[in-house]
Amino acid sequence: MLANPHKYVVAGYAPSVRAALAEAFDMPVGTNCQGRINTALRYLGFDKVFDVNCSADFTIMEEANELVERIRNGGVLPMFTSCCPGWITHIQKNYPQLLPNLSSCKSPQQMFGALVKHIFSKLSGVAPEDIFVVTIMPCTAKKGEKRRTFTEGLADVDAVITTRELAALCKENGILLNELSDSEPDKPFGEYTGAGMIFGATGGVMEAALRTAVNILDPDAPFSPLEFVQVRGLDGVKSAVYSVGGKKLNVAVVNGLANVNKLCEAVARGEADYQFIEVMTCPGGCVMGGGQPIRATIVKHKAEIAAARANVLYSADRVMPNRRSHNNASLVKLYSDYIGEPCGEEAHKLLHTHYRATPKYVKE
Ligand code: SF4
Question: How many angstroms separate the alpha carbon of residue 143 from the centre of ligand 1?
């Protein structure tokens, strides 16, 4: 597709990719190489280089508003996050009775494709059918996820490559990341906040959503919290209670699918007193996805690698001028010009999905 003159090829890479790709080029674990990724993707011939951090901000706008709507209107709670396709497959097969608890938001990857094909096409004048969306992701489950959602008859995402596959593609083309200089992603889907950045670490989606949900629930509060450190770290299950606008908000964060079943069973029995639960399949979250570089695991303990990669995202978040998704200026303008209200009719068409129970695979 990169060589096809009739296709306009657009790239977007996940938050966690920038925290690990450098390892494939012998740079130290914990190196943030986002500027070099932009340059490498341009050398490879992509027509536009965007950043999935931006669509992660859209995910937060939709997910935080959906959560608040459920809390205010007696909707189904607790609400589970829906960013991880491994988790979605697990709940569809094993806990179909909990599907109404799942957020209807598409993942940042799928939102990215829908936004590029149906909004960037309007901004650029390129027909949606001529745009080919490639995402670079930390895991192979994202390759399966690309078949999950379509908007107006078009697949949201056309091809998914992993972090390791991007490293291989660069090397095949003589592009050595360690020798590149930094460049910026293209606008408008290259603008993002610190909230979009931390999605790649366990607890990141929860923290990002809370930064916006708290603001919606209690807009007059003189001080709105920014860092929710109780949901950070590598414990398999974390929980915290926050008081927002006179209401108690109980949240839980689970990473590693082995840790999720007990919680699902408690939710099914009506015994889990939570409003919001984040679930990520991989222990440590997406920074430790199965498509990430593996060489470092030979010399370092996995927990050490997970902490160093998560630190890349949290350090970048700390120095961002905007750290809440609802303060992303491009996003605010795109909602106002094209999408309307978060969770509104147009937002539902572009950015939400639905789920159905799928049969379990039974061994003969
Ligand atoms: S947690 Fe793992 S399986 Fe889920 S999206 Fe992230 S990398 Fe993929």
Answer: 11
Q: Which regions of 209-246 does DSSP assign to beta strands (E)? A: 237-244
- Residue by residue, DSSP assigns 238-258 as EEEEEEETTEEEEEEEEESGG
CA atoms within 13 A on the CB side of 63: 36
pTM value > 0.85: yes
The answer to whether the CB of 282 is under 6 A from ligand 1 is yes
Atom of ligand 1 nearest to the CA of 140: 8
Ligand 1 pocket residue status of 286, Cβ below 6 Å: yes
Residue 289 Cα to ligand 1 midpoint, Å, equals: 5
Cα–Cα distance measured from residue 333 to residue 105, given in angstroms and rounded to the nearest whole number: 20
Report all structural domains of the chain as residue ranges with CATH numbers, in order of start: 8-351 (3.40.950.10)
CA of 280 to the centre of ligand 1 (A): 6
Q: Which residues pair with 251 in a beta bridge?
A: 240, 276
The confidence score (pLDDT) of residue 29 equals: 95
Rounded Cα distance between 251 and 60, Å, is 16
